[in-house]
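As a warm-up, study this chain.
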Amino acid sequence: MSNKRPAMELGTVLVVGGCGFVGWHIVNHLLNFPSETDASVALPKPEEDPRFDYPQLAGRYPVCVAKVAVVDLRTSNNRLPGAEYYDGDITSAESMLEVFRKVKPDVVIHTATPNVLEGNKPLLRKVNVDGTKTLLEVAGGARGDWGGKCKAFVYTSSSSVVHDTQSDLINVDEEWPYIRGDRQLEYYSETKADAEELVLKYNRTSPSGMVTCAVRPAGIYGEKDTTFTYKVLEHSSKASPTVLRMQLGDNNNLFDFTYVGNIAYAHLLAAFRLLATKTRIESKQSEPLDHERVDGEAFNITNDAPVYFWDMTRAAWALTGKVVEPHQVWELPEALLGPIGGIAETVMGICGKTPRLTRRTVRYSCMTRYYSCDKAKSRLGYTPIVSVEEGLARAVGYVVERERQEGQKKGHQSNIMEYYAAFNPNPPYMFRRILLLLFWLIALPASTADKPLYGSKEGIPGIDASFDYVVVGGGNAGVTLAARLAEQSFNVALVEAGGFYEINYPPAKVPGAVGIGTGTDPMAIRTPLDWGFLVDTGPGADSRTIHYEKARCLGGASASNFMLYQRPTIGSMKLWADLVDDESYLFDNVFPLFKKTINFTAPNEELRPANATVSYREDAYEKHGQPVDVTYPHAASPFSSWLQLGLESVGVEVTSEFNSGSLLGSFYCPFTLRPADQIRSSSESAFFRSPYSSGYLETLTLYKNTMGKKILFDQKRATGVEVATAGSKYILSAIHEVIISSGAFQSPQLLMVSGIGPTDVLQEHEIDVIVDLPGVGQNLWDHVFSGPTYPVAVETFNKLAMDLQYLISQIREFKSSHTGVLTNHGFDYIAFEKLPGSSRAGFTERTENDLSWFPEDWPEVEYIAAPLFIGNFSDPITMQPQDGRQYASIMPTLVAPTSRGNVSIISADTDDLPVIYMNWLTTETDQQVLVAAFKRVRDIFHSEAMAPIIVGEEFFPGKEYQTDREILEVILDTAMAPWHASGTCKMGTRSDRMAVLDSRARVLGVEKLRVVDASAFPVLPPGHPQSVVYMLAEKIASNIIGYSKDED
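Now compare it with the structure written out below.
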């Protein structure tokens, strides 16, 4: 019997969020499934495999007659032929009006929502509630005439709006009340409830009389699903057979899983019925009866076939060959697992991360939750077309075939699952992860604040106070500035959002632990120090949302970075001086300031390996510099000595000039490291915990765990800062100046929320404009890397990351004698070069012109030793291959970038993290240089000098990636930065429209306000900026002190 249904004529349909998971399927359905007729957009499906032999969708669902348009924040991906695409922001009425004027929709289907897993409350509120309100007002004509009238508005809500994430729900209908407030443990669901309520209240009340309804999907899965299906298959690929046999609860809990195609169909039915209602109203026919009404109503959408939770999960595993028979299952009672989940939360909470096993996930796996869709069936005419079983085959088949295709195309991504599943002698994945961190935390000293603070005092939260200077931000620059000013007996308040890293996260002191928490995966391990920034890499790097590590603690970056200490080039500082029209920034003039902070100690040649001899100039350091220690680790990475030989073989010679104004060449890089005990020397530990500091800290008052909320002004003179400690707001007044040192992301944020920045941004958030400075948040520089990995015949980080016995022995050695591999993170050998002529053959004239802007001594590329598998840097601890071999990478890093990003705000509150667009590799120049550097690294690996340790073919991305285009695809998919974000409050001259500061770091257009940190850089010099930040803090401190003395 034919399932063909009458065509649905929908007019012009605008799908909001049409590049997302549900939105894409709605567009596909509206266009009558081009995914089944156009090879360019076909959904991957395993061929000649009976497990995935499912029929086409076309002909089973009704044909649609519609003109289709899509608006999404970014529409570069997930496009379908036949639809029009527009970039737009639903939180901006102007943006939406522009789209509506072009599209003139009869129907709006609103699916847009942030990723619930990101947990960004301000963003969820802004998009789900504020964005929906804006969209309703634009569509209904309340925000102005756009040349048409929208008749019908369908909103994608969620079945979770009536669920508290804890209770069982059995065949629940739409009469259940919303769950809000303390009872709602999932903020996403609360915002969806608020938005749904807005939509339903807006029914028939707009100027155009637009009719509205809401669709509540339950348990969505299907092709392009990145949550349920992908996570279930990811778990099965990583877990051992033993772990797969474990079942949380008794599996008597029924659960709704709804195929996404059925959900798309329900949206179109809702739109179709709303249009019929609108016609009925306009033709003055009788009102729909209550039992047939669609407008102003919400509809549960399910597959109308709830299944047992673990049956669904195991069915997905079985489709990939991971079969768990019923008699093999180990039932783990919920009553036992709940407390275990609580323990896991405590353990992982110490590390700033939520474990996979929590009390909430235990409850989720054991609860019953299914809904009645009788209302949708009777009023919309809804019937699920694709069964649960077919939908699962489609979803799993999509992932399996996509992984296979990616394996052929770029082995680096698709094989990651295989890497995890390879032979591993250690405990299963989740437990290994917890054990690794447990050993770190238990083995390191319990008394972590190893020396007391000398002489300083802590401010009293909640009490207004007055100081000579108020410094907001206790990182490299902030601590240095505050300490130098206190040295001169000024009363200084230092405001820091975090606390002491030695107490909150003791592994931060250990060089070998620096990689923990740095992964790009938003769901990877994070430390308790992490701000939790998620950045958009930009279209040049596949518009990925990644984690970008920044430390929230005293010491800032110096408490979490890789401790590399080298200085910029003479030419780069001349360019700086030229850009700000101030010769005091010439290298010779700032050289004494570079020296001032540093207490250098020569390497211990008795402990350091003989084949890891360092080369340096003693005159690069002051004999009596204070107080930050710089030295070399007792251990050296075995891979680094081979890299030195490989670099020499391609013409990159050893240099000792790296702290004297020249970088071209290779060298073992010194660390900011205490020579005696081989632990980190940060700005906080150096200035606050050394005997050197005892004489001046009496005039420094520390406000830790305190957030700068707003700079206060009298006219255009900064008078102080509103701060908050544990929610209590109070004012710290500044007699002389306010100094902002909150970093490249949050210094511009604090300026903007205080009324200094681009006028349009400030007005959007109803912030009074003090000064219109369009450059605030712009000019974001960063370095970018991506590189290949090879199997090697020397010990690398793989052994430390995956061999627990070895890890334990090294922790013991580090504790007892301050020796062993934990004194070094392995990224200890670096090199800089301008690419040779042979590597530049493919450069365009534009690329060469762009690169000619940089001074002659400014290298284009840095090479960094990385004795581990890098890949996409998703999690450097848990992503390591488990096949028993050792791996090493060389990271070619772009240090003359021409792409620029930006930072903006989402509210007037600094508690809401800023929005960060890195825009890496958006220029042809950057792409060509990094591709050439990638190929150069391969030449180094393939050199005769390194042949003795290379024991196999290229592991990542694989030798099949040879053309520039293929290599670029790998780079765009894996590019990451070494956390050198800078330049967002750049110095400049008054003729530079984008300048924010003058050469003395004073904010233009106001008085008594400075910004001193990496955001102040007019350019990001080549290399690692730690030394430059210290220099800048010393320089501005000297400026302030000299000016104050002149006043006296």
